[in-house]
Amino acid sequence: MIIVLRIGSPEPEIQQVVDAVKKFGYEPKLIRGVERTVVACVGDERNHHTLESLIVLPQVETVTPVQKKYKLVSRQFQRHDTVIDVAGRKIGGNSFHVVAGPCSVENREQTLETAKAVKAYGATLFRGGAFKPRTSPYDFQGLGRAGLELLKEARAATGLPIVTEVMSPMDVEMVAECADVLQIGARNAQNIPLLALAAASGKPILLKRGISGLVDEWLLAAEYICVHGNNQVILCERGIRTFEQAYRNTLDLSAVAVAKKETHLPVFVDPSHAAGRADMIIPLARAAVAVGADGLLVEVHPDPATALSDGGQQLTPAQFAQLMAELKPLVEVMGKKLG
Ligand code: PEP
Ligand code: MN
């Protein structure tokens, strides 16, 4: 932390700051300029009492951290890419995986038909929501436990591991019993008890970025999972809320580049929730590959016009086939292998 004192602070007030810094376990180093004094505080901010509260002292003008708050997820902590094993699929490193499936598990036929189709076209994991975090309480809320049973059937029929969302800490045990990867959705991106319990399940976790989440907040949410003993985290950028209304959210590819640089975790892109429009999925997916993403999460439905949620953004199986065909050479150009 760097503490800048107000111009002309008298010696006793400088000393008061020095004493407070020592009390919190840091070593204060004074830099005395012509007009003002700066106190550089040496010590690991992540393990000590925060100095930020010193801003309340009248002689303190600013208190600025110089260290990132996250540690376990950072490249400084681990230089090599984390590779996560999901039922034999290696996520991260030099592979590129596509998680595909419907927004919601609606019924047996729709679920099995989609799982078989996405597998045939090259998806390596199957997604589908049994618990749906809908904006309106009047919209389809998901099949819940019955949906999990259908996901198990889809896995048995195709061999594809299951990615499905857990919305509540109370449901972690039940969802983890079915899921190969637990998804934590954008609306729950900072639900600390959920992050902690999901981590404790020992399952890999696909962590979406919050709807208006800062990159720092996203990475600190991942840090929570790691702090609870689980470093199998897949970060997923799914678009953020901006002023733009031409599409549902704004896909923040810069965040993918930053997350790849700052962390050792695999980073996926969800163009479906970013765009909210089926016609934008392929171009955004191409861009995701080019920016260095490690995989995609894409919504696919046998008949999007009848979907119970997110119909406008789901690809038909034929459109999904086209997406996969277009991705293959791009993935290779990026030095990765599909699946
Ligand atoms: C989803 O994946 O179906 C979903 C609800 O995503 P998000 O949390 O990104 O809105
Ligand atoms: Mn959806």
Summarize the amount of helix as a percent range: 25-40%
Structural class: alpha/beta
Provide the spatial order of strands within the biggest beta sheet: 7-8-9-10-11-12-13-14
Order of helices and strands: EHEEEEEEHEHEHEHEHEHEHHEHE
Tell me about this structure.
This protein has helices at 11-23, 108-120, 145-158, 172-178, 192-200, 215-227, 253-262, 271-275, 281-291, 317-333; strands at 2-5, 27-32, 37-42, 60-64, 84-86, 89-91, 95-101, 125-127, 162-165, 181-184, 205-208, 233-237, 267-269, 295-299, 337-338. The model has no long low-confidence stretch (mean pLDDT 96). Helix 2 runs parallel beside helix 3 (145-158), helix 5 (192-200) packs across helix 6 (215-227) and helix 9 runs parallel beside helix 10 (317-333). By secondary structure, it is α/β, with parallel strands linked by helices. The protein is built from 10 helices and 15 strands. The protein is elongated, with a radius of gyration of 23 Å. The strands form 3 sheets. An 8-stranded parallel β-barrel has the order 7-8-9-10-11-12-13-14, surrounded by 7 helices. Strands 2-3-1-4 form a 4-stranded antiparallel sheet, covered by helices on one side. A two-stranded antiparallel sheet has the order 5-6. Manganese (II) ion (MN) binds at residues 103, 273, 299, 309-310. Manganese (II) ion (MN) is lined by residues 103, 273, 299, 309-310.
What's this, in brief?
Helix content is 33%, strand content 19%. It has 339 residues and is of the alpha/beta class.
